[in-house]
Design goal:
Helix content is about 40%, strand content about 20%. Helix 5 packs across helix 10. The model has no long low-confidence stretch (mean pLDDT about 90). The chain is α+β, with helices and mostly antiparallel strands. The protein has helices at about 5-20, 25-35, 40-45, 55-95, 110-125, 140, 180-190, 230-245, 285-290, 305-315, 330, and strands spanning about 130, 135-140, 160-165, 170-175, 195-200, 215-225, 250-255, 260-270, 275-285, 300-305.
Length: about 325
């Protein structure tokens, strides 16, 4: 076939072939075929030197026409294919922001911690400060400074968990109540004082529906020159009504604690039943003497309550073991 006819056919077919290229790879191969060093156009160019001038001019015009048509068409198709491939890549990586997000389940404070914080907040609103003490205590602070006699049953290993503390000069134990902070705090602070002490305590109690060897208490202490039992009753009545509601009925029954005299238990009529809520009393003069206070100059009130029991009363829990159950079906009820 004559070169001129070949170029005419090339120019006629090129636009359709370029438009039919479905990918950049196909377009690159087609560009090499149409304009490369082995293409028809290149071969006609190499043959121009051996033909007469008139034919050379005619073929030259056809070559320029082919280049003018094919080159821009390839550039336009390449740009179009690049847009198509870019759009496909972006669509494949797209995130549908209209879908709901997936987030981890949010945690919450344990119900005992919630109750302890609420109890503490009530007393802080009355002017009490918050203190904490060690869970590993000495016999002095846990018993002696609080007027426990040497033969008191609570000192026995059947009731208290003692620690092997090497060559310690005195017994070391896991505290059986938060009351040791009464002595510790009074040793470090002169009266007047108002302090509330939340914390964990330990006793050799069996694990059953109403007992646990590990439980939680909140201790309270106020000392000044003229504190009376009326102050104690008014303070605790206010607390009970803040915690359980304004319509409850309260009564105080005589009791015995080594570190208070007189001593009492506070009971509340709550949801149709009388419940023992806490123990309390006026600080025993012997406790003041042990910490260096003059019992002739100061008086004080003290109280202690079980945070676990308060949580059970508040939420209607009948088995204390539920409070320590890691079952999320139990814990999620107290969000």
């Amino acid at each position: 076939m004559e070169p001129a006819a070949t170029l005419d056919r090339l120019v006629a077919d090129a636009p359709h072939r370029i438009a039919a290229a479905a990918s950049l790879d196909q377009l690159h191969r087609l560009e090499t075929e149409l304009l490369g060093r082995s293409s028809v156009i290149a071969e006609v160019k190499r043959s121009l030197g051996g033909i007469d001038p008139e034919r050379r001019r005619a073929l030259g015009r056809l070559i320029n026409q082919a280049n003018t048509l094919i080159g821009p068409a390839i550039l336009a198709r390449r740009a179009e294919l690049e847009r198509i491939e870019t759009a496909a890549a972006l669509a494949g990586d797209a995130v549908d922001v209209t879908l709901p997000g997936r987030s981890g389940e949010q945690g919450t404070l344990h119900v005992i911690r919630q109750v302890m914080d609420e109890i503490v907040d009530i007393f802080v609103a009355l002017g009490y400060t918050v203190a904490t003490g060690p869970e590993a205590e000495t016999d002095w602070y846990n018993f002696t400074a609080l007027n426990f006699k040497p033969d008191h049953p609570a000192r026995a290993e059947t009731d208290t968990m003692y620690l092997d503390y090497g060559e310690a000069a005195e017994g070391v134990l896991l505290r059986t109540h938060t009351s040791p902070m009464q002595a510790r705090y009074m040793e470090q602070h002169p009266p007047p004082i108002q302090v509330v002490v939340p914390g964990r305590v330990f006793r050799r109690d069996p694990l059953d529906p109403t007992h646990s060897p590990v439980f939680h208490q909140v201790e309270g202490l106020a000392v000044d020159t003229d504190i009376t039992f009326a102050d104690l009753k008014g303070t605790l009545a206010h607390f009970a009504r803040e915690f359980l509601g304004p319509d409850i009925t309260i009564k105080f029954l005589p009791h015995y604690f080594p570190f208070t005299e007189p001593s009492a238990e506070m009971h509340v009529l709550y949801r149709g039943s009388w419940l023992e809520l806490l123990g309390c009393g006026m600080v025993h003069p012997a406790v003041f003497e042990h910490v260096g206070y003059d019992p002739e100059q100061v008086t004080g009130l003290a109280f202690g309550l079980g945070a676990d029991r308060m949580a059970m009363v508040r939420h209607g829990v009948t088995d204390i073991r539920h409070l320590f159950d890691p079952d999320r079906r139990v814990l999620s009820q107290f969000r």
